[in-house]
Amino acid sequence: MLKITNLNKTFHAGTVNEKKAIIDLSLTVNDGDFITIIGSNGAGKSTLLNLISGTLPIDGGHIVLNGTDITYQSEIKRAKRISRVFQDPMMGTAPDMWIEENLALAYRRTKRHTLKWGISKKERELYKETLAQLGLGLEERLNSSVGLLSGGQRQAVTLMMATLQKPELLLLDEHTAALDPKTAATVLGISDRIIREQNLTTLMVTHNMQNAIDYGNRLIMMHNGQIIFDIAGEEKKNLTVEALLKKFEEISGSEFANDRALLG
Question: Can you give the pTM of this predicted structure?
């Protein structure tokens, strides 16, 4: 599904602030993989997603999605195939537009654009049915502005928008980090259900080690712009946070530097 080869990204190259964010990183993602990504501060987790989505240009390497080389494709062109949910609930939606209008934008993103805007009865029923699955009562608030929703509700709507038209690849960039623990657990549970039901190929960056272990079929750990640990299947299921920390220290030769991950 996704093949990344010798990916490199350096910020402020040739200056005193030079930072090698991604170093010769290679990764093969199989169809239907749900991969959780954990790592210390500045490991390159979000940078990796930015390079895959086209938000940042790469310095070297190749990215191939479903047999198509997208290395130098624009972010807009990739957005037809790759969906992303960010950490900030304010991103990914148009706050002054109604819920149904936001969903309509997402539903039509892969379709040919015309001058027609009105939302049909069939579409509206689809949106109500989709929102009802969240269990948040939003199906009765189609004409409410998204900006009036709570952070958790807004993130849930963003998730539905990202998966309304099944993407080839779903990127979740710490999408529950800005939410309170109870709401975060709800959104994470919804995410897991949608991913499993649609068999979505997914990369999820998380700061919570226990969530990285509990969710997905595969876990990768990053450090200093490289993947240092990749585990899947039964081995992953049998992991503990303590074992994961120990493995990180053994491979990297340093302590895990991410307070949020440890507290989580």
Answer: 0.89
